[in-house]
Structures are given as structure tokens and as C-alpha cells.
Amino acid sequence: MSNIFRSGSCTALAAATLIAGLLNAQSLSAQQGPPAVPVSVATPISKRVTQWDEYSGRFQAVETVEVRPRVSGFIEKVHFKDGQIVKAGDLLFTLEQRAFEISVESAEAEMTRTTAQVDLQDAEVERVTPLAKTGAATKRELDTRQANLAIAQAQRQSAQAGLKVAKLNLEWTEVRAPIAGRISDRKVDVGNLVTGGAAGATLLATIVSLDPIYFRFEVSESDYIRYVRGFISGARESGRQVAHPVRLKLADEKEWTREGKLDFVDNQLNSRSGTMRGRAVVSNGDQLFTPGLFARMQLYGGDIDALLVSDKAIVSDQASKIVFTVGPDDVIKAQPVELGQIVDGLRVIKSGLKPDDRVVVDGLANPMVRPGSKVVPQNVQLTTKAN
């Protein structure tokens, strides 16, 4: 009986020892924390890149003309189709011409009358001149005949001017396109009376030029200051003196395949928006661009020494962008960075990183990879598309 009690006592003691060992192991594991997670790290690529600053804006016609008549009259005929492309000099509207043709005939008759007067007075002067030399006619009579000739010549000049005005008014009854481009719909139909002249003339249509075309955009005050400082330091030429290249893409395009040149920079900032207006000129041979169309533009911002990392290494933290770096103790640290454009498949980091930083480029999907956690870094090398 005593042997039985002794054997049971040993078994219970062994079980208690095993349980205590397991509890101690779990406690020790809990104190040591979770195991280190392997991650891929790489140092940024140092490269001199061309900086492109991105802006949004809209296209604007190089030339915009409101077609208005120079003389008043009734619209007799419209010679274009609404929205068609016209060339400079194309006939657009014809006004009723009969009244103007009568004015031309009247001016021609006046021209004939005054010419006859000049011929008559000229003959009178020729007859009196030799008589005045011999004393058969007085000097006063000669002066009178010469004055009458001068008056007749002035009347003929006035008639000539009147004839030119009459012919010009007749010519202006044909309203022609002053520029080449696309015309709008007609604002006045056949049979309507339109008013001509400089003030209050009736709007007939509008024409906008198509090729080339302007792209208008706004630059922030901080960017403008950066450009000016770059010009002062010699790092970048002034956009007022050099036609810097620009690249554009439309809302449905992914690549910056369209090119242009900076054309104009305004002479003052807008006090309300705090922006500086700029303008680029772009070729529009395929007539895809139209005034008012929205697009994105990249403006040449100079060459800079930049660090490039994989775009997968960028993490969004509310309004800022960060990357995870691994310190000498293999602990994750969050590093805020300022991003630039994509170059050769990698993201430009304008600030926030050093060339020897070890950036986590793979393994970020693991929830254990977070600031303060210990990792097992595995070195990899970044490559660009150019390589």
C-alpha cells in the first residue's frame, strides 16, 4: 500500500513540474515579445534628375474675334455653317447692298461734276495768264481765276474721298472672317436689321483660332518665390527670358506625351488668390485641344540632385507621406518625406531621407511591421527602368 502512495506522489510531482516549466516558458516568451519579422530594405538611388512642377489649367485661344458689321443694314445671306472652320478672308455675311450701290453712283456723279469744274477753271486760268502779262487783264482777275481753280480742285478731292467712302461702305456690306479658326453659331438670322459702327455694333458671330493654342495656368506664391530665387542663384533661367519646356496630358491620358513652351509670365501676383498667371503655347495640329478644355501641365523646374526609392515604400499618414527606415538596432522608424515626380519608375524624394538610410521596400503589408518593432533586414538593390 505504501508503494502505491509513493508512486502516485511521484507522478503528481512530475506533472506539476512540467506545468510550471510550460508556464515559465510562456512568461519568458511574453516578456521577449513577438519574433522579428523579415523585411526587404534598400538604400535610395542618388541621381541628378530634371524637376517637373505640376499645375492644372485650361486652354485658351491665341486669337478671339467678335465678328460685327461696320455698316448698318439688313442681313441678306449667311455664307457659313455654324461651327465650321473658316479661313481669313472667307465671306460670312452679306448685307443688302442696293442703298450702298446708289451711294457709290452718286459719289461717282459728284466726282464727274467736280472734275468738269476743275477743267473749266483750269482753262480760264490759261486764257487770263497771257492777257495779264500784256496788261490786257488785271492781276486781280488772274488771282480770282486761280482761286476758283484751287476751289474746284479741293471740291474734286472731297468728291474723291466721298467716292472712296461710298465704295468702302459697299465693300463692308460683305462681312469677312478677319482670322482663321472655328466660327461659332450665327447670332443673327437672314432678314434682321443689324447696326454697324464702332460703338453698339451688332454681334454676328465669334471666331477662335485653333493652332497654335495657349494653355493658361496659375503658379502659387511659394513656387514663384522658388523660381525667382533659382534665377538669382543661377540655378534656373528666368521664364520671362527663356521659353522653358512644358509637358501636358488630358484627363483621360496617363503619359506626358504632349509638349509646348512657356510663353508668358504675368507682371504681378493676383492679390486675391496669391498666384502668378503663366501661359504656355502648344501645337494643336490635330485640333484636339479647344478653348476651355482642362488639362494637367508639367513645367521645367531645373535639374536637382535627388534620392529615388520605390513607390511601394511610400505610406500615407493622414495628410503626410512617410517611409519606414531601419536603424542600426534593426528597429523600424517612421520618416516623413516630401515627394517629387516619378523618374525611371522610382519616386523622387525631395527631402526627408539621407543617402545611407535603409528604406523598407517590401514587407509593409505585414501588420507586425510598424514604428518601434524589431525586424530582420534583408538587403536588396533598387533598379530603375533605364537599367
Distance between the termini: 85 Å
- Compute the average pLDDT: 85
- Work out the radius of gyration: 44 Å
Task: Tell me the major beta sheet.
Answer: 6 strands, antiparallel, barrel
CATH class of the largest domain: Mainly Beta
**Oligomeric state:** single chain
Largest beta sheet: strand ordering: 2-11-14-13-12-15
Q: What's the CATH topology name of the largest domain? A: Elongation Factor Tu (Ef-tu), domain 3
Taking pLDDT < 50 over at least 5 consecutive residues as the criterion, the unreliable ranges are: 4-8, 25-31
Q: Give the CATH architecture of the largest domain.
A: Beta Barrel
CATH-assigned homologous superfamily of the largest domain? Efflux pump adaptor protein, beta barrel domain
Structural class: alpha+beta
Tell me the series of helices and strands, N- to C-terminal. Answer: HEEEEEEHHEEEEEHEEEEEEEEEE
H/I helix tally: 4
How many domains? The number is 4
| Dominant shape | elongated
Protein described:
Helix content is 30%, strand content 35%. It has helices spanning 2-32, 98-134, 139-172, 221-233, and strands at residues 37-42, 45-61, 64-67, 73-78, 85-86, 91-95, 174-176, 181-183, 193-194, 205-208, 213-220, 245-249, 258-265, 275-282, 294-309, 315-317, 320-326, 332-343, 346-351, 359-362, 375-379. It starts with a helix and ends in an 8-residue tail after the last strand. The longest helix has 37 residues, at 98-134. Helix 2 (98-134) packs antiparallel against helix 3 (139-172). The strands form 4 sheets. Strands 2-11-14-13-12-15 form a 6-stranded antiparallel β-barrel. Strands 3-10-8-5 form a 4-stranded antiparallel sheet, with no helix packed on it. A 4-stranded antiparallel sheet has the order 7-6-4-9. It has 4 domains: 37-49 and 305-379, conserved putative lor/sdh protein from methanococcus maripaludis s2 fold; 53-62 and 210-302, Efflux pump adaptor protein, beta barrel domain (Elongation Factor Tu (Ef-tu), domain 3, Beta Barrel); 65-92 and 179-208, RNA polymerase II/Efflux pump adaptor protein, barrel-sandwich hybrid domain (OB fold (Dihydrolipoamide Acetyltransferase, E2P)); 97-172, Orthogonal Bundle (Helix Hairpins). The model is unreliable at 4-8 and 25-31 (pLDDT under 50). It is of the alpha+beta class. The radius of gyration is 44 Å and the shape is elongated. It contains 4 helices and 21 strands.
